[in-house]
Automatic annotation (TrEMBL):
UniProt keyword terms in alphabetical order: Hydrolase
Origin superkingdom: Bacteria
InterPro entries for the chain: His_Pase_superF_clade-1, His_PPase_superfam, PG/BPGM_mutase_AS, Phosphoglycerate_Mutase
Protein name: Probable phosphoglycerate mutase
Amino acid sequence: MIFLARHGETRWNRLGRKQGQLDSPLTESGLAQARNLAAAVGRLRVDGVFSSPLGRAATTAALCGVAFGMPVVVAAVPR
């Protein structure tokens, strides 16, 4: 099974600002969204948790990784 999830809300999301490869931290609401996601998917059977290196994605993935009891594999971004 492949399960894809988007990161929680960031400061720039709230402002309507585009982020692309730039990074903006999760808001308190975004952290709550990530915790809720982790609680909701923590019962699924998965083989791995993967994330981009951007902080907003890595923070969201880390909370899910804790729920699954496994580390997050951060994907390298080609330059």
